[in-house]
Design brief:
CATH superfamily: Glycosyl hydrolase domain, family 43
Order of helices and strands: HHEEEEEEEEEEEEEEEEEEEEE
Number of helices: 2
Largest sheet: 5 strands, mixed
Distance between the termini: 27 Å
Number of strands: 21
Shape: globular
CATH topology: Tachylectin-2, Chain A
Strand order of the largest sheet: 1-5-4-3-2
Number of domains: 1
CATH architecture: 5 Propeller
Structural class: mainly beta
Oligomer: single chain
CATH class: Mainly Beta
Helix content: under 10%
Protein backbone atom coordinates (compact mmCIF):
# COMPACT_ATOMS: atom_id res chain seq x y z
CA UNK A 1 0.00 0.00 0.00
CA UNK A 2 1.14 3.61 0.25
CA UNK A 3 3.38 5.37 2.74
CA UNK A 4 1.61 8.60 3.35
CA UNK A 5 0.43 8.87 6.92
CA UNK A 6 2.25 9.11 10.20
CA UNK A 7 -0.80 7.81 12.03
CA UNK A 8 -3.16 6.17 9.57
CA UNK A 9 -5.98 5.44 11.95
CA UNK A 10 -6.10 9.02 13.27
CA UNK A 11 -6.19 10.47 9.77
CA UNK A 12 -9.00 8.18 8.66
CA UNK A 13 -11.00 8.92 11.79
CA UNK A 14 -10.56 12.65 11.34
CA UNK A 15 -11.64 12.58 7.73
CA UNK A 16 -14.67 10.46 8.50
CA UNK A 17 -15.67 12.83 11.26
CA UNK A 18 -15.54 15.80 8.93
CA UNK A 19 -17.00 14.04 5.90
CA UNK A 20 -19.45 11.40 7.15
CA UNK A 21 -20.64 9.21 4.29
CA UNK A 22 -19.83 11.99 1.81
CA UNK A 23 -18.53 9.63 -0.88
CA UNK A 24 -21.73 7.62 -0.82
CA UNK A 25 -23.94 10.73 -0.69
CA UNK A 26 -22.48 12.29 -3.84
CA UNK A 27 -24.59 10.38 -6.35
CA UNK A 28 -24.57 10.26 -10.11
CA UNK A 29 -21.29 8.43 -10.58
CA UNK A 30 -21.14 5.55 -13.07
CA UNK A 31 -20.41 2.01 -11.97
CA UNK A 32 -17.16 0.51 -13.27
CA UNK A 33 -17.06 -1.75 -16.29
CA UNK A 34 -18.10 -5.30 -15.52
CA UNK A 35 -14.97 -7.47 -15.50
CA UNK A 36 -14.29 -11.13 -14.73
CA UNK A 37 -11.42 -13.30 -13.59
CA UNK A 38 -8.83 -11.90 -11.20
CA UNK A 39 -10.34 -8.63 -9.99
CA UNK A 40 -8.30 -8.00 -6.84
CA UNK A 41 -5.88 -5.12 -7.38
CA UNK A 42 -4.51 -1.94 -5.79
CA UNK A 43 -3.03 1.13 -7.54
CA UNK A 44 -3.42 -0.28 -11.09
CA UNK A 45 -1.38 0.83 -14.10
CA UNK A 46 -2.48 -0.66 -17.44
CA UNK A 47 -0.99 -0.74 -20.93
CA UNK A 48 -1.80 -2.55 -24.16
CA UNK A 49 1.38 -4.30 -25.22
CA UNK A 50 2.60 -4.59 -28.79
CA UNK A 51 1.61 -8.27 -28.60
CA UNK A 52 -2.02 -7.13 -28.28
CA UNK A 53 -2.31 -8.28 -24.66
CA UNK A 54 -3.17 -5.91 -21.85
CA UNK A 55 -0.99 -5.97 -18.76
CA UNK A 56 -1.87 -4.48 -15.38
CA UNK A 57 0.72 -3.99 -12.65
CA UNK A 58 -0.21 -3.08 -9.10
CA UNK A 59 0.80 -2.71 -5.48
CA UNK A 60 1.16 -6.05 -3.70
CA UNK A 61 3.96 -8.57 -3.37
CA UNK A 62 6.80 -7.91 -5.81
CA UNK A 63 4.55 -5.75 -8.02
CA UNK A 64 1.57 -7.93 -8.88
CA UNK A 65 0.78 -8.64 -12.54
CA UNK A 66 -2.48 -9.32 -14.39
CA UNK A 67 -3.00 -10.15 -18.07
CA UNK A 68 -6.03 -9.79 -20.36
CA UNK A 69 -6.86 -10.13 -24.04
CA UNK A 70 -9.69 -7.60 -23.93
CA UNK A 71 -9.24 -5.65 -20.63
CA UNK A 72 -12.45 -7.32 -19.39
CA UNK A 73 -11.31 -10.78 -18.29
CA UNK A 74 -8.13 -10.73 -16.23
CA UNK A 75 -5.87 -13.56 -15.13
CA UNK A 76 -3.26 -13.59 -12.38
CA UNK A 77 0.24 -13.52 -13.92
CA UNK A 78 2.36 -13.58 -10.79
CA UNK A 79 4.81 -10.74 -10.17
CA UNK A 80 6.87 -8.36 -12.24
CA UNK A 81 10.04 -9.56 -10.47
CA UNK A 82 10.92 -13.02 -9.26
CA UNK A 83 12.61 -11.47 -6.23
CA UNK A 84 13.14 -8.04 -4.75
CA UNK A 85 16.31 -6.13 -5.71
CA UNK A 86 18.53 -5.82 -2.63
CA UNK A 87 18.37 -2.01 -2.47
CA UNK A 88 14.63 -2.09 -1.75
CA UNK A 89 15.40 -3.24 1.78
CA UNK A 90 16.93 0.16 2.51
CA UNK A 91 13.36 1.49 2.60
CA UNK A 92 11.32 -1.30 4.21
CA UNK A 93 12.01 -4.60 5.92
CA UNK A 94 10.00 -6.70 3.48
CA UNK A 95 11.23 -5.33 0.15
CA UNK A 96 7.67 -4.37 -0.73
CA UNK A 97 7.16 -1.98 -3.70
CA UNK A 98 4.07 0.17 -4.35
CA UNK A 99 2.18 2.12 -6.97
CA UNK A 100 3.86 1.15 -10.29
CA UNK A 101 3.60 3.05 -13.57
CA UNK A 102 4.16 1.37 -16.96
CA UNK A 103 4.96 3.13 -20.22
CA UNK A 104 6.62 2.44 -23.60
CA UNK A 105 9.46 4.56 -24.92
CA UNK A 106 12.61 4.20 -27.02
CA UNK A 107 11.85 0.64 -28.07
CA UNK A 108 11.27 -0.81 -24.60
CA UNK A 109 8.86 -0.83 -21.69
CA UNK A 110 9.59 1.17 -18.55
CA UNK A 111 8.23 0.30 -15.12
CA UNK A 112 8.53 2.88 -12.36
CA UNK A 113 7.59 2.06 -8.77
CA UNK A 114 8.08 3.24 -5.18
CA UNK A 115 9.61 1.72 -2.06
CA UNK A 116 9.02 3.19 1.39
CA UNK A 117 7.39 2.49 4.75
CA UNK A 118 4.17 3.72 6.32
CA UNK A 119 4.41 7.12 7.93
CA UNK A 120 7.80 8.22 6.58
CA UNK A 121 9.12 10.09 3.58
CA UNK A 122 12.37 8.15 3.64
CA UNK A 123 11.37 6.90 0.21
CA UNK A 124 12.66 6.08 -3.25
CA UNK A 125 11.34 5.66 -6.78
CA UNK A 126 12.99 3.00 -8.91
CA UNK A 127 12.83 1.96 -12.56
CA UNK A 128 13.11 -1.25 -14.56
CA UNK A 129 12.97 -1.98 -18.30
CA UNK A 130 11.72 -4.89 -20.39
CA UNK A 131 11.65 -5.79 -24.10
CA UNK A 132 8.13 -7.21 -23.84
CA UNK A 133 6.46 -5.63 -20.79
CA UNK A 134 5.57 -9.08 -19.43
CA UNK A 135 6.16 -10.22 -15.85
CA UNK A 136 9.47 -11.99 -15.32
CA UNK A 137 11.24 -10.01 -18.06
CA UNK A 138 12.15 -6.85 -16.12
CA UNK A 139 15.70 -5.66 -15.49
CA UNK A 140 15.98 -3.28 -12.55
CA UNK A 141 18.10 -0.14 -12.90
CA UNK A 142 17.96 1.17 -9.36
CA UNK A 143 16.93 4.52 -7.93
CA UNK A 144 15.43 7.29 -10.03
CA UNK A 145 14.73 9.84 -7.30
CA UNK A 146 14.70 9.78 -3.50
CA UNK A 147 13.41 11.75 -0.55
CA UNK A 148 14.60 11.94 3.05
CA UNK A 149 13.13 13.06 6.33
CA UNK A 150 14.47 16.59 5.82
CA UNK A 151 12.60 16.97 2.50
CA UNK A 152 9.16 18.53 2.26
CA UNK A 153 7.93 15.95 -0.25
CA UNK A 154 7.56 12.16 -0.45
CA UNK A 155 9.16 10.28 -3.36
CA UNK A 156 6.42 7.70 -4.03
CA UNK A 157 3.59 7.22 -6.54
CA UNK A 158 5.47 7.93 -9.81
CA UNK A 159 3.69 8.88 -13.04
CA UNK A 160 5.60 9.43 -16.30
CA UNK A 161 4.61 11.93 -18.98
CA UNK A 162 6.34 13.35 -22.05
CA UNK A 163 6.00 17.03 -22.96
CA UNK A 164 7.63 19.03 -25.74
CA UNK A 165 10.34 16.42 -26.26
CA UNK A 166 11.20 16.22 -22.56
CA UNK A 167 10.49 13.50 -19.99
CA UNK A 168 8.85 14.26 -16.65
CA UNK A 169 7.79 12.38 -13.55
CA UNK A 170 4.96 13.48 -11.29
CA UNK A 171 5.01 11.99 -7.81
CA UNK A 172 3.96 12.63 -4.24
CA UNK A 173 1.90 11.60 -1.26
CA UNK A 174 0.81 13.75 1.69
CA UNK A 175 3.63 15.96 3.08
CA UNK A 176 3.30 18.91 0.64
CA UNK A 177 1.35 16.99 -2.00
CA UNK A 178 2.13 16.45 -5.68
CA UNK A 179 5.50 17.33 -7.16
CA UNK A 180 7.26 16.93 -10.52
CA UNK A 181 10.87 16.46 -11.64
CA UNK A 182 12.48 16.21 -15.08
CA UNK A 183 14.08 12.91 -16.10
CA UNK A 184 16.87 12.02 -18.49
CA UNK A 185 15.40 10.46 -21.65
CA UNK A 186 18.47 8.21 -21.82
CA UNK A 187 18.63 6.80 -18.28
CA UNK A 188 15.04 7.46 -17.24
CA UNK A 189 16.36 8.90 -13.98
CA UNK A 190 16.15 12.40 -12.51
CA UNK A 191 18.43 14.90 -14.20
CA UNK A 192 21.25 16.00 -11.90
CA UNK A 193 20.26 19.23 -10.18
CA UNK A 194 16.73 19.18 -11.64
CA UNK A 195 14.28 21.45 -9.86
CA UNK A 196 11.33 19.97 -8.00
CA UNK A 197 8.12 21.65 -9.16
CA UNK A 198 5.02 21.90 -6.97
CA UNK A 199 1.71 20.95 -8.66
CA UNK A 200 -0.98 20.35 -6.02
CA UNK A 201 -1.59 20.32 -2.29
CA UNK A 202 -4.27 20.81 0.36
CA UNK A 203 -4.54 23.89 2.60
CA UNK A 204 -4.78 21.78 5.76
CA UNK A 205 -2.70 19.02 7.36
CA UNK A 206 -2.18 16.16 6.63
CA UNK A 207 -2.32 17.44 3.01
CA UNK A 208 -4.25 14.37 1.88
CA UNK A 209 -3.51 14.25 -1.84
CA UNK A 210 -1.38 11.65 -3.64
CA UNK A 211 -1.11 9.25 -6.56
CA UNK A 212 -0.84 11.62 -9.54
CA UNK A 213 -1.46 10.75 -13.18
CA UNK A 214 -0.76 13.33 -15.91
CA UNK A 215 -2.07 13.11 -19.48
CA UNK A 216 -2.18 15.41 -22.50
CA UNK A 217 -5.48 16.18 -24.24
CA UNK A 218 -5.70 18.96 -26.80
CA UNK A 219 -3.62 21.91 -25.64
CA UNK A 220 -3.83 21.01 -21.95
CA UNK A 221 -2.07 18.73 -19.51
CA UNK A 222 -4.46 17.17 -17.01
CA UNK A 223 -3.43 16.25 -13.48
CA UNK A 224 -5.52 13.51 -11.87
CA UNK A 225 -4.92 12.79 -8.18
CA UNK A 226 -6.40 10.83 -5.28
CA UNK A 227 -7.69 12.90 -2.37
CA UNK A 228 -8.53 11.91 1.22
CA UNK A 229 -8.02 8.53 2.92
CA UNK A 230 -6.90 5.30 1.28
CA UNK A 231 -6.40 1.79 2.50
CA UNK A 232 -9.13 1.53 5.15
CA UNK A 233 -11.47 -0.86 3.35
CA UNK A 234 -15.09 0.27 3.45
CA UNK A 235 -14.07 3.23 5.63
CA UNK A 236 -11.85 4.65 2.86
CA UNK A 237 -12.77 8.11 1.56
CA UNK A 238 -10.52 8.18 -1.52
CA UNK A 239 -11.87 10.16 -4.47
CA UNK A 240 -10.36 11.36 -7.75
CA UNK A 241 -10.01 15.05 -8.60
CA UNK A 242 -8.56 16.76 -11.67
CA UNK A 243 -7.14 20.07 -12.82
CA UNK A 244 -5.39 21.24 -15.97
CA UNK A 245 -2.62 23.51 -17.25
CA UNK A 246 -1.20 24.62 -20.58
CA UNK A 247 2.30 23.99 -19.17
CA UNK A 248 3.50 20.63 -17.89
CA UNK A 249 4.81 22.13 -14.64
CA UNK A 250 1.66 24.15 -14.00
CA UNK A 251 0.01 26.07 -12.55
CA UNK A 252 -2.89 23.60 -12.57
CA UNK A 253 -6.40 24.92 -11.96
CA UNK A 254 -9.89 23.45 -11.82
CA UNK A 255 -12.87 24.50 -13.96
CA UNK A 256 -13.61 27.42 -11.61
CA UNK A 257 -10.05 28.69 -11.93
CA UNK A 258 -9.04 27.66 -8.40
CA UNK A 259 -5.41 26.53 -8.28
CA UNK A 260 -4.68 22.98 -7.21
CA UNK A 261 -1.94 24.47 -5.04
CA UNK A 262 -4.75 26.10 -3.05
CA UNK A 263 -6.89 22.99 -2.65
CA UNK A 264 -8.72 23.19 -5.98
CA UNK A 265 -9.66 20.25 -8.18
CA UNK A 266 -12.85 19.14 -9.93
CA UNK A 267 -14.33 15.99 -8.45
CA UNK A 268 -14.25 13.35 -11.19
CA UNK A 269 -15.19 10.15 -9.36
CA UNK A 270 -16.18 9.32 -5.78
CA UNK A 271 -17.42 6.23 -4.02
CA UNK A 272 -21.05 5.17 -4.45
CA UNK A 273 -23.04 2.09 -3.60
CA UNK A 274 -20.73 -0.92 -3.25
CA UNK A 275 -17.81 0.94 -4.88
CA UNK A 276 -16.07 2.64 -1.95
CA UNK A 277 -12.89 4.75 -1.92
CA UNK A 278 -12.23 5.15 -5.65
CA UNK A 279 -8.59 6.11 -6.24
CA UNK A 280 -5.04 5.01 -6.98
CA UNK A 281 -5.87 5.97 -10.55
CA UNK A 282 -4.07 5.95 -13.87
CA UNK A 283 -5.15 6.74 -17.42
CA UNK A 284 -4.44 4.60 -20.48
CA UNK A 285 -5.47 4.81 -24.12
CA UNK A 286 -6.37 1.88 -26.37
CA UNK A 287 -8.07 1.65 -29.75
CA UNK A 288 -8.71 5.39 -29.78
CA UNK A 289 -10.45 5.41 -26.38
CA UNK A 290 -9.20 6.83 -23.08
CA UNK A 291 -9.83 4.77 -19.93
CA UNK A 292 -9.60 5.54 -16.24
CA UNK A 293 -8.21 2.65 -14.17
CA UNK A 294 -8.43 2.72 -10.36
CA UNK A 295 -9.16 0.56 -7.36
CA UNK A 296 -12.23 0.57 -5.16
CA UNK A 297 -13.15 -1.30 -1.99
CA UNK A 298 -16.06 -3.65 -2.54
CA UNK A 299 -18.66 -3.13 0.20
CA UNK A 300 -20.29 -6.41 -0.84
CA UNK A 301 -17.04 -8.36 -0.43
CA UNK A 302 -15.68 -7.26 2.96
CA UNK A 303 -13.92 -4.23 1.49
CA UNK A 304 -11.68 -6.21 -0.87
CA UNK A 305 -9.77 -3.86 -3.24
CA UNK A 306 -10.80 -4.45 -6.87
CA UNK A 307 -10.13 -3.09 -10.33
CA UNK A 308 -12.35 -0.30 -11.59
CA UNK A 309 -12.42 0.69 -15.26
CA UNK A 310 -14.46 3.52 -16.78
CA UNK A 311 -14.43 5.12 -20.20
CA UNK A 312 -12.98 8.62 -20.09
CA UNK A 313 -14.58 11.18 -22.37
CA UNK A 314 -14.06 14.92 -22.81
CA UNK A 315 -16.57 17.77 -22.78
CA UNK A 316 -16.67 20.55 -25.38
CA UNK A 317 -14.80 22.68 -22.86
CA UNK A 318 -12.12 20.03 -22.62
CA UNK A 319 -12.86 18.57 -19.19
CA UNK A 320 -12.82 14.81 -18.52
CA UNK A 321 -15.96 12.83 -17.68
CA UNK A 322 -16.33 9.16 -16.77
CA UNK A 323 -18.95 6.78 -18.19
Amino acid sequence: MRAHRATTALVVAALLAVLPNTAQAEGGYPDPLSITGQQIIHDPTILRLKSGQYVAYSTGGVIGARLSKDHRRWTDAGNAFAEAPSWWYEYNDTGDPWAPDISYRAGRYWLYYAVSSWGTNHSAIGVATSPSGLPGTWTDHGKVFTSGTTDSWNAIDPAIVRADGRLWMAFGSYWTGIRMVELSPVTGKALPGAGVHHLATRPDAPYAVEGPSVVRHGRYYYLFASYDACCAGVNSTYRIRVGRSTAITGPYTDSTGKPLLEGGGDLLLAGHGRYIGTGGESVFRTRGQDWLAYHYYDAQDNGTPKLGLNRLSWTKDGWPEVF
